[in-house]
């Protein structure tokens, strides 16, 4: 008999709190081993995504994202209670293409509160895979604590053959609850691998092996019986960035470069009052001469201009085919355009806008 406890929701406007507590089944008891040690406490913050989706009859592969709650997801994972005492809260229920500053700020605030109040030893966030890298990178840069926060999703919705959500969720809880994870801060767990948000990106539209870290490789491996980190805990600093009180990050646009490119997209971003522009440049972050001239005009106006690349792997280095020093640009190094955008937003929000200072922040290993 399952003992599913329902508790009052205190912290979030859109949430219900449940606890997967001691089940009569020994496998899911509240104690971790024969020494009767207390299990770690994990809070699952559910935001939606395919992992919360259910198959839809409209086509063989159709489904609706964000239909099931975090509490329902936990019920689908036999044995998950052996890793932790788990509480689920519903933060949102959206496909991650609809992820926004409001949900980000809500997540950051709630996670800081959970750790400040000692409510849990780790947090798991269920999330769509499309923009998971951006949410993970945002949280890595703003959370106060370096306690484990594990984002997890799935490529296949619940109820279909080979659904990957239940195993991914099991492994996410396992990682968040592990003493090995303390001090590692924000991580992503998908398909038996553990990733650092700095390196992680979505690389395939449909495969379960989609979230990879092409420049660095995973930080670890997980299966239902073991966790193996292959990188040390390197950084225990607190985030240097604070969130703007206004509840919204400044506007930073991404402009995608292509052959036969003119200046119009960059000029539009300037006219639309973007405070920063990230170029998803060709190759090593390059653009046409016309676009380059528009970027220089923008930089002269005090807009932060970052050169990233539309190529999925590698680094964008300074002063290769473009004279960044002279033009006042920033090179994104390893950060892809979507993560370069997040960092640029946080920097502008924290008053860091000069090219040298912005470049310094991009170069930091944090
Ligand atoms: N668009 C959905 C999302 O990001 C589907 C992708 C997924 O969750 O895997 O939420």
List keywords for this structure.
about 375 residues, alpha/beta, Rossmann fold, 2 domains, ten-stranded mixed beta sheet, disordered N terminus, binds glutamic acid, L-asparaginase_N, asparaginase activity, L-asparaginase, Asparaginase/glutaminase_AS1
Describe the structure.
It is a single chain. Helices cover 25% and strands 21% of the residues. It has a 10-stranded mixed β-sheet with strand order 1-2-6-3-7-8-9-10-13-14, with helices on both faces. A 4-stranded parallel β-sheet has the order 15-16-17-18, with helices on both faces. The protein is built from 9 helices and 18 strands. It is α/β, with parallel strands linked by helices and 366 residues long. It starts with a strand and ends with a helix. β16, α6 (289-300) and β17 form a beta-alpha-beta unit. Residues 1-36 have low confidence and may be disordered. α3 (132-142) packs parallel to α8. The chain has 2 domains: 3-229, Rossmann fold (3-Layer(aba) Sandwich); 252-364, Rossmann fold (3-Layer(aba) Sandwich), CATH 3.40.50. The site of glutamic acid (GLU) has 11 residues, from loops.
In short:
With 366 residues, the chain is α/β, with parallel strands linked by helices. Helices cover 25% and strands 21% of the residues. It folds into two domains: 3-229, L-asparaginase, N-terminal domain (Rossmann fold); 252-364, 3-Layer(aba) Sandwich (Rossmann fold), CATH 3.40.50.40.
């Amino acid at each position: 008999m399952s003992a599913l406890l329902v508790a009052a929701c205190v912290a979030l406007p859109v949430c219900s709190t449940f606890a997967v507590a001691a089940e009569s089944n020994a496998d899911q008891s509240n104690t971790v081993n024969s020494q009767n040690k207390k299990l770690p406490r994990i809070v699952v913050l559910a935001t939606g995504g395919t992992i919360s989706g259910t198959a839809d009859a409209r086509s063989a592969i159709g489904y609706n994202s964000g239909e099931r709650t975090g509490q329902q997801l936990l019920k689908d994972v036999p044995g998950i209670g052996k890793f932790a005492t788990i509480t689920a809260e519903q933060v949102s229920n959206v496909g991650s293409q609809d992820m926004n500053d409001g949900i980000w700020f809500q997540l950051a605030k709630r996670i800081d509160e959970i750790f400040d109040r000692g409510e849990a030893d780790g947090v798991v966030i269920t999330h769509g895979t499309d923009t998971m890298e951006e949410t993970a990178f945002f949280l890595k840069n703003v959370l106060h604590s370096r306690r484990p926060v594990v984002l997890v999703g799935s490529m296949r919705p619940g109820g279909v053959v080979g659904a990957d959500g239940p195993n991914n969720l099991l492994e996410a809880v396992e990682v968040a609850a592990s003493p090995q994870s303390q001090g590692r801060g924000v991580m992503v767990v998908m398909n038996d691998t553990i990733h650092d948000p700095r390196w992680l990106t979505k690389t395939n539209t449909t495969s379960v092996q989609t979230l990879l870290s092409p420049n660095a490789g995973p930080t670890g491996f997980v299966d239902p019986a073991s966790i193996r980190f292959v990188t040390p805990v390197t950084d225990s600093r607190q985030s240097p960035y604070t969130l703007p009180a206004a509840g919204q990050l400044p506007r930073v646009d991404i402009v995608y470069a292509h052959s036969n490119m003119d200046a119009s997209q960059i000029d539009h971003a300037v006219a639309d009052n973007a405070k920063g522009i990230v170029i998803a440049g060709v190759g090593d972050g390059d653009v046409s001469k016309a676009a380059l001239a528009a970027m220089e005009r923008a930089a002269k106006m005090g807009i932060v201009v970052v050169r990233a690349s539309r190529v999925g792997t590698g680094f964008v280095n300074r002063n290769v085919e473009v004279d960044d020093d002279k033009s006042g640009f920033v090179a994104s190094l390893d950060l892809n355009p979507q993560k370069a955008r997040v960092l640029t937003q946080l920097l502008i929000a924290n008053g860091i806008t000069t090219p040298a200072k912005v470049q310094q922040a991009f170069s930091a290993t944090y």
